[in-house]
């Protein structure tokens, strides 16, 4: 009964296109003519012949491994600071969320080049401080990915808000009791905040990991859609997009998408399996 | 009727919500008889194109529904619509994509309209030929175009440099000038942008050796040695300090304001002739265009269509669509608005009509194309399927050389072999 | 000497300075954009840091009407879609999340796994089949494809988010309610929703902002410029293919487009912060 809208939505709107893409992954489909069945050919190509796929995977993994933990740590720390009643806290909350409001607008692309370009802000600071001339960070194959990781961390607003909402559900009387028992701040954090926040941390971890694997827009915009220089920011989704819409290989792109789904599903399954040991839900009783 | 349906389905609030959206929905459907026109562009082009659309509506009383998107979004939208068999009626087409779309039966052959709705008697035959795919016309060129070297005239004049006759100069002449003035340029300014990643530049390079990117049979038309020589040339330019270091150059992702010329980091830049006005608007100094120096005995350049107008195979009213196309291409008043923003028209009478009213920069384009027109070789064979993929692959290939990540010959070989593989995969 | 001062003062100052520096890092790019919105195109890229020489509003005037239809229409469209999306997401997703978090039914785990899987598939490959589907409904070039799905809880993010928060509400509360004779509807309406204000506010913020910022959906489904949303219109200022872009008006309009989301954020974050009196209910 309560599931009704979701069931309609899932079977009516989501499942059809999803299955369609699964079917397309076994076809040769160029978008302009009807798909032709090609069996496992796409998967075979992906596993054995695709030279750019390996690179795309390694770029994506690097991005996930760095951006997710760092972003979540920053988000949690600031959420805890902002949870306290510092004067002007509403102002800080708003400013910290601002970068995420900008999202992936064109302005970000221009801006990022202004900051990390050859004559950008970072290099101006570097020159003032050390007298060294830095490279054009966004356009150098050794650093371009790093600037995108920085961008991801910089847009930590969403997990921060979710952490804030989570912290608001932690009963304040627990802290009061702990303070009376003489527990230190760190101890309170470990014994009260972390366990009670675990479901929210878990949520952010799972969701941010999924999103990071699928990362597309920022890289698309900052690199002008090319994943350059020298494919150093060729994210998996960017490569998939290029295959689908620029090279007219929607069939192959669908196969790539399903491979990514399997990869993400494995990671998510691991997260859910281990969550038993560290995520504690109020509704499970003690 | 949509309203009651949604009310029953979703209840009060939602029903009201949807009927509000349904209103705007029906507003859109009310234009069902309109001819849908789609183009990619920029604010300047949009303004002109919209003005022509308005003019057409007042002149003929028929309605047009215009849509415009930025280049990158355009092709995604178009491909999705093609998949849904709902392409707009009149489509601005690119030279690269016209083969993809025409050969996959998405575009209507225009031959039956030529002579009736499409009045092209006055139109340059060579330009018309560029819209022919496998013997049928699928696009009408909206203007002629050619590649060029654009240069900062103010800077060169300041150094007292006069360029030799560009119809006969060679890359050696060009490099010699560069070496001559390299040390006299302001700090941070280089002789030229590095053009290693630019496929059109590679094309002029191999064409001047008497070859081309592709053979008429759709195979690679040049040899590995040509590519190695091309990479070696641009590596030399970079090593000599005539072009910027790799990371500075790589900041140019293809947007004009990121180009070395616009950021005052290069005297020379590669440019298509119809882009001169836009580039001049970005640069305070005066700029001008010359032909690309040849590296071999043959003429490397050719006249190419800047873009086409094509018609969708699924267009509801093909005659009406053809009339709209004709208006853009042959109507004098329309062309008073369009001028040469999309390239120089192939219609002789219109060209005569609009030329006197052009700005100085626009006149430069006309003059340039007049010169180029007498020193070009014929249009290359149409690019095979997957040529777009090879075009994009040139960028990482050259950059891996520029950044010194890979041995030059290995990178060239890799790109060459991957190109062959791409063509086989099509 | 500091030893004698109350430590509260020192931590306050430290906390404020950290926050302030961090806030400046966060806000610098935005300031840059606002400053640029007052500048001439030629100046924007040549002097990256300086303040504008004059507060010239011409970019705003020019930008508002630069396209065939003025931004008034785009804003109206964006608001319409976003507001209905928020309502839809809150209603449908909270219902679904309640079912997953509290009700026992067959196949719950499988359904939940399926729902999670829909999060993992890159959207580019479902785009075309979805377009074809909506086209069969005759919904292309209307707002339906952008609104109706929200009422059918297709966004698994919000469901998953709410499930996590609902599970943070102790079960004793609804057990007590069941004893009092409440059915699941009443528990959902009278207990779960009021106790979940922070997460509902969070969902409302995200729902609004993401719908408002969404570019791909409008790009694919809307053809008529009278139906365009703000992000779609903003893209028309930039030429990615080597022509000339209008950056001044772009930044002016981008700055303006931030105002509504900022207001929504400020309004709803209060709800998050106010929190719930969960502790009082609990023991």
Automatic annotation (TrEMBL), chain A:
Subcellular locations according to the entry: Cell membrane
Entry's Gene Ontology cellular component terms: plasma membrane
Residues of the ABC transmembrane type-1 domain: 57-271
Superkingdom of origin: Bacteria
GO biological process, one term: transmembrane transport
Record's bilayer topology term: Multi-pass membrane protein
Transmembrane segments annotated in the record for this chain: 63-82, 94-115, 143-167, 255-279
InterPro entries: ABC_transporter_permease, MetI-like, MetI-like_sf
Keyword terms: Cell membrane, Membrane, Transmembrane, Transmembrane helix, Transport
Stated family: Belongs to the binding-protein-dependent transport system permease family.
Name of the protein this chain belongs to: Carbohydrate ABC transporter membrane protein 1 (CUT1 family)
UniProtKB/TrEMBL annotation, chain B:
Signal peptide: 1-30
Subcellular location, record wording: Periplasm
GO cellular component: periplasmic space
Coarse class of the protein's main subcellular location: periplasm
Chain segments annotated as coiled-coil in the UniProt record: none
Family named by the database record: Belongs to the bacterial solute-binding protein 1 family.
Name of this protein: Carbohydrate ABC transporter substrate-binding protein (CUT1 family)
Source taxonomy: Bacteria, Pseudomonadati, Pseudomonadota, Alphaproteobacteria, Rhodobacterales
TrEMBL record, chain C:
Localization, UniProt: Cell membrane
Entries under PROSITE patterns matching the protein: ABC_TM1 (PS50928)
Alphabetical UniProt keywords: Cell membrane, Membrane, Transmembrane, Transmembrane helix, Transport
Pfam families reported for this sequence: BPD_transp_1
Span of domain ABC transmembrane type-1: 75-268
Superkingdom of the source species: Bacteria
Database matches in Gene3D superfamilies: MetI-like
Transmembrane segments: 12-35, 74-98, 110-131, 143-166, 187-212, 246-268
GO CC annotations on file: plasma membrane
Keyword Transmembrane attached: yes
Topological type in the membrane: Multi-pass membrane protein
Annotated family: Belongs to the binding-protein-dependent transport system permease family.
Protein name: Carbohydrate ABC transporter membrane protein 2 (CUT1 family)
């Amino acid at each position: 009964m309560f599931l009704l809208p979701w069931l309609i939505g899932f079977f009516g709107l989501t499942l059809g296109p999803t299955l369609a893409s699964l079917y397309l992954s076994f076809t040769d489909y160029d978008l302009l003519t009807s798909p032709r069945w090609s069996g496992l050919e796409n998967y075979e190509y992906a596993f054995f012949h695709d030279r750019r796929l390996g690179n795309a995977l390694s770029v994506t993994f690097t991005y996930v491994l760095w951006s997710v933990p760092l972003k979540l740590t920053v988000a949690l720390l600031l959420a805890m600071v902002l949870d306290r009643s510092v004067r002007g806290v509403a102002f800080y909350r708003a400013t910290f969320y601002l970068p995420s409001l900008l999202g992936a607008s064109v302005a970000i692309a221009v801006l990022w080049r202004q900051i990390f370009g050859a004559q950008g802000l970072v290099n101006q600071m570097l020159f003032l401080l050390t007298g060294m001339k830095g490279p054009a960070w966004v356009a150098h194959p050794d650093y371009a990915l790093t600037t995108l990781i920085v961008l991801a961390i910089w847009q930590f607003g969403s997990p921060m808000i979710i952490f804030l909402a989570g912290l608001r559900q932690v009963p304040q009387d627990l802290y009061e009791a702990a303070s009376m028992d003489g527990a230190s701040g760190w101890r309170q954090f470990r014994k009260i905040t972390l366990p009670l926040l675990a479901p929210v941390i878990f949520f952010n971890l799972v969701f941010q990991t999924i999103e990071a694997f699928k990362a597309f827009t920022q890289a698309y915009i900052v690199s002008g859609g090319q994943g350059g220089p020298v494919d150093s920011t060729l994210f998996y989704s960017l490569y998939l997009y290029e295959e689908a819409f620029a090279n007219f290989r929607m069939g192959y792109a669908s196969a790539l998408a399903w491979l990514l789904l399997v990869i993400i599903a494995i990671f998510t399954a691991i997260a859910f399996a281990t969550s038993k040991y560290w995520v504690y839900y109020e509704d499970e009783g003690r | 009727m949509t309203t009651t349906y949604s009310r029953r389905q979703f209840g009060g609030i939602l029903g009201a919500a949807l009927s509000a959206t349904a209103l705007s929905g029906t507003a859109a459907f009310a234009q069902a008889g309109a001819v849908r026109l789609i183009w990619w562009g920029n604010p300047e082009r949009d303004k002109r194109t919209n003005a022509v659309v308005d003019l057409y509506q007042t002149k003929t009383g028929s309605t047009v529904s215009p849509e415009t998107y930025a280049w990158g979004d355009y092709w995604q939208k178009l491909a999705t619509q093609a998949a849904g068999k709902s392409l707009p009626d009149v489509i601005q087409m690119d030279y690269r994509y016209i083969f993809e779309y025409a050969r996959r039966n998405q575009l209507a052959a225009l031959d039956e309209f030529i002579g009736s709705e499409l009045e092209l008697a006055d139109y340059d035959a060579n330009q018309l030929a560029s819209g022919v795919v496998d013997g049928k016309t699928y696009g009408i060129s909206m203007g002629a175009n050619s590649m060029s070297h654009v240069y900062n005239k103010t800077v060169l004049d300041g150094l007292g440099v006069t360029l030799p006759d560009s119809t006969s100069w060679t890359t050696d002449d060009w490099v010699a000038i560069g070496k001559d003035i390299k040390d006299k340029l302001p700090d941070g300014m280089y002789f030229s942008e590095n053009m290693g990643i630019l496929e059109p530049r590679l094309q002029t390079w191999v064409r001047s050796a008497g070859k081309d990117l592709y053979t008429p049979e759709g195979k690679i038309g040049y040899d590995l040695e040509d590519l190695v020589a091309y990479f070696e040339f641009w590596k030399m330019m970079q090593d000599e300090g005539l072009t910027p270091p790799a990371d500075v150059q790589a900041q140019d992702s293809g947007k004009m304001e990121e180009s070395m010329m616009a950021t005052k980091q290069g005297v020379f830049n590669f440019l298509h002739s119809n882009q001169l006005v836009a580039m001049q608007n970005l640069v305070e100094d005066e700029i001008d265009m010359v032909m690309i120096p040849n590296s071999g005995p043959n003429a490397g350049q050719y006249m190419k269509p800047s873009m086409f107008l094509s018609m969708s195979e699924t267009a509801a009213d093909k005659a009406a669509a053809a009339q709209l196309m004709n208006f853009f291409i042959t109507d004098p008043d329309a062309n008073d608005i369009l001028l040469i923003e999309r390239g120089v028209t192939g219609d002789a009478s219109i060209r005569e009509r609009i030329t006197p009213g052009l700005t100085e920069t626009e006149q430069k384009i006309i003059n340039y194309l007049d010169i180029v027109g007498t020193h070009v070789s014929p249009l290359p064979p149409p690019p095979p399927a997957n040529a777009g993929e090879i075009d994009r692959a040139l960028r990482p290939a050259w950059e891996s050389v520029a950044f010194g990540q890979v041995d030059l010959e290995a990178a060239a070989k890799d790109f060459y072999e991957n190109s062959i593989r791409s063509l086989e995969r099509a | 000497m500091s030893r004698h001062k109350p430590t509260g003062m020192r931590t306050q100052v430290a906390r404020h300075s950290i926050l302030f520096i961090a806030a400046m890092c966060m806000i610098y790019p935005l300031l840059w954009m606002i400053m640029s919105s007052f500048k001439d195109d030629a100046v924007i890229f040549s002097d990256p840091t300086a303040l504008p020489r004059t507060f010239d509003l011409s970019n705003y005037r020019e930008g508002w009407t630069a396209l065939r239809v003025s931004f008034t229409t785009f804003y109206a469209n964006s608001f319409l879609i976003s507001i209905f999306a928020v309502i839809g997401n809150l209603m449908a997703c909270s219902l679904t999340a309640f079912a997953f978090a509290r009700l026992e039914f067959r196949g719950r785990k499988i359904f939940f796994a399926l729902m999670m899987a829909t999060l993992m598939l890159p959207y580019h490959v479902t785009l075309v089949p979805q377009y074809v589907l909506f086209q069969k409904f005759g919904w292309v070039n209307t707002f339906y494809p952008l609104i109706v799905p929200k009422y059918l809880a297709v966004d698994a993010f919000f469901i998953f988010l709410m499930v996590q928060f609902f599970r943070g509400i102790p079960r004793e509360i609804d057990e007590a309610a069941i004893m009092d004779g409440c059915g699941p509807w009443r528990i959902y309406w009278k207990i779960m929703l009021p106790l979940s204000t922070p997460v509902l506010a969070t969902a409302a913020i995200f729902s609004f902002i993401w719908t408002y910022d969404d570019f791909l959906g409008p790009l694919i489904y809307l053809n008529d410029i009278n139906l365009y949303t703000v992000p779609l219109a903003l893209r028309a200022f930039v030429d990615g293919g080597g022509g000339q872009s209008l950056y001044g008006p772009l930044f002016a309009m981008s700055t303006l487009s931030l105002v509504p989301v900022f207001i929504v954020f400020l309004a709803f974050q209060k709800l998050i912060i106010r929190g719930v009196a969960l502790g009082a209910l609990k023991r």
